[in-house]
Amino acid sequence: MTVLELDLSFLFVVAVILIWFMIAYQFVLTCFGYLNYMKSLRERRQVDGMSFDYPSCTILIPAHDEEKVIDRTLEAMRRLEYQPGRLTITVINDGSADRTRDIVLKHAAEDPRVTLFDVPAGEGGRGKSRALNLGVQHVASEMIAIYDADNTPHPDALRYLAAQLLLHGELGAVIGKFRTVNKNVNLLTRFINIETLSFQSMLQAGRWQMHNIATLPGTNFVMWTKLIRELNGWDEQALTEDSELTIRIYERGYKIKFIPYAITEEQEPQSWRVWLRQRTRWVRGNNYVIAKFFRHILRFRNRRLAVDLLYTLSLYYVFFIAILISDLLFLVSVLNLVTMSLPGPYTVVWAMAFILFIFEILLAVSFDGEDRFRNLALILLMYFTYCQFWIYLVVKAFYLDYIKREKRSWDKTVRFEVREEHNS
Asked: What is the model's pTM?
């Protein structure tokens, strides 16, 4: 049987250029992330040597059926090092049907800083943005901090965030780093740990150091109360309310700073089913943000900001196309279906891109002391397994949004009880 040979030289060259562009830019961001890491070490020491008159702060914690985690979360919140008399910890009970409310009231009885806000009957369960919009109406403090119900911030996290907001008037918000509390549970959580650390070292630390741009996460950040009110709160249609709010903050003329030494621990999905549901929500949320702001971004006076936001918002699809073309060409090459009519060391160039991908991820996680040999093996395995699932995610989200036109709805991530050994 004769093997049909296809001349895919042009497609191969396009794939190589696309993959190299993405990986090279990510490598540049990783290098800037390293500079940010070194700068942050000095910055932290400077902040530790300063004294501040901290603004009054209300921590908002949206909580919908969070009995498995809220007790541990509130214990961590009560250990936060913050100026006495300036901190309020408000749990927004978003229509919980479990013991969430009772647990919060127990903490409130023990610590007057802890308060409970019950979302009115019939208004609950409509998503995080809705809960935050209702909760912020009752805030009387100068600053708000947002934490998810599964978060356990380090005792110094909040004061580090607030200090930067005080020191730099151009900032509308300051974000910290999140670490995976259950990273050692199984292969999936190990993958997620590497993914989240490298994302923060590249796309948060690197972008901030390179051109003063960072993206709000869903947790562990502070902002001025007056600013969120000027912006009319969170967009309740956005599944990724953090990305959507980020653009409006920059539009208003403020910046968002990333500081890697303000750390919180959070849970990540422990099953592939939960992970797929969460990441599908993320991609669909990103689709919404792209549709909402695409034309407007092109008119930004700050062209650098416009290009960065366009790249970041389209990252899911850039990565999707690169991986898909890479997989297809790898397959037809193995089957000897490709002839290259253009001269050049394309195979070597492609292999070098893959090696650079591995190296930059390893470098990015080294900032957090995760550059062990075991993680090198995990990164190699990730490319052929974890990364490939993004093809399915992007296709599914595209189908739901643009073909099926399914209504977007909030999907709560499944929680679990944390055992201390998971954080070893």
From this structure: 0.89
